[in-house]
Design a protein that fits this description.
The protein has 350 residues and is of the alpha/beta class. The protein is built from 14 helices and twelve strands. Helix 1 runs parallel beside helix 8, helix 2 packs parallel to helix 13 and helix 4 packs antiparallel against helix 5. The radius of gyration is 23 Å and the shape is flat.
Length: 350
């Protein structure tokens, strides 16, 4: 399944325009709150020059990129955790994504309705955070209450779960996001069971011109600044039109797509040959058998070894034959931790 990034924000901050620019898919962008009720979904390819160059090297018939699913979710308002606006529907849609992209309004356009009385992306972020936190507090509180009987009976699993949930609750009560605290592996596993909204990784998109964004950018980590309307207009241009107009810069949308991929702590390995060159997604830290399992479910169980070379080394050598002559292709076993940019051939058998 594609990875899912939820595009969230207050009404009329540019979410649906961003979604259209990214996916080249027409959606309703009417200028009023809640014009997006059911989430629009679009799957986009993650730009990757490695696929292009390897496909050229091995004369591949097909090029297949990794993908991200972007979900355009209805605008949130203060009180969503209590059912205001589209309230619970909005929060349920967030629960189903892997990561969150906050779209924050920096632009000043009087003809675009602003549901707040000021342009303040810092305050807007706080509103979004607090609505997620309040909903998480409700989720955690319910579970704590339901666990009490098991804890009293001495159930060790329940005792550990209660300990983790109480830690999470104290953070939420202070207004802290659960994702911004350190968690041991077992603790994180327990928290993931509840799909807490404030535990999901996030990044910020500051929507406006450079001048409009500059006064706010120091308040944010892990952000991309983007004039969404300008990028949307550019996304509609053909390559010929871009050349005619002298547009040389790579679209910042590509940067956004790449950064969205990174926040999920993922890496890409590649396979290449005459049939196809393909990028594959795995978690950072996964080993060679897990990489094999992504290619084919049987490969993880029947893994024998992997032949590996860095994509750049393969290009520099001019292909697999010369890379083998130079001893650049390594044979790795089950404990090998796959690196971003590895070109891999899995050897398996029963």
């Amino acid at each position: 399944m594609p990875l899912r990034i939820g595009i969230v924000g207050l009404p009329n901050v540019g979410k649906s325009t961003l979604f259209q620019a990214i996916t080249q898919k027409q959606v309703d962008r009417a200028n009023y709150p809640f014009c997006t009720i059911d989430p629009n979904v679009g799957v986009v390819a993650v730009p990757d020059e490695r696929v292009e160059k390897l496909a050229e090297l091995t004369n591949s018939q097909k090029k297949i990129y990794t993908t991200i699913e972007f979900v355009d979710i209805a605008g949130l308002v203060e009180g969503a955790s209590k059912g205001e606006g589209l309230g619970n529907k909005f929060l349920a849609n967030i629960r189903e994504v892997d990561a969150i992209l906050y779209v924050l309004r920096c632009f000043r356009k009087e003809d675009v309705v602003n549901v707040r009385s000021e342009i303040n992306p810092i305050k807007d972020k706080e509103i979004l955070d607090m609505e997620l936190i309040l909903k998480d507090m409700e989720t955690v509180e319910k579970r704590i209450n339901s666990l009490e009987r098991e804890v009293k009976s001495g159930d060790k699993k329940a005792i550990k779960e209660m300990e983790v949930l109480k830690k999470a609750y104290e953070l939420l009560k202070k207004g802290d996001l659960v994702c911004e605290s350190d968690w041991a592996e077992e603790e994180a596993r327990i928290i993931k069971l509840y799909q807490l909204l404030s535990f999901k990784p996030r990044m910020y998109l500051l929507n406006g011109s450079k001048q409009e964004v500059d006064q706010f950018k120091d308040f944010f980590n892990n952000y991309v600044s983007l004039d969404i309307l300008g990028e949307s207009d550019m996304a509609e241009l053909s390559e010929e039109d871009k050349i005619d107009l002298g547009v040389k810069e790579e679209s910042k949308l590509n940067e956004l797509i790449k950064e969205s991929y990174k926040i999920l702590d993922l890496i890409t390995f590649l396979t290449t040959g005459p049939d196809e060159t393909r990028a594959w997604t795995i978690k950072k830290g996964d080993k060679a058998p897990q990489a094999g399992g992504v290619i084919h479910s049987d490969f993880e169980e029947t893994f024998i070894k992997a032949e590996i070379i860095n994509w750049k080394d393969l290009i520099d050598c001019g292909g697999f034959a010369k890379a083998k002559e130079k001893g650049m292709i390594r044979t790795e076993g089950k404990e090998y931790v796959v690196q971003d940019g590895d070109v891999i051939e899995i050897k398996s058998g029963k």
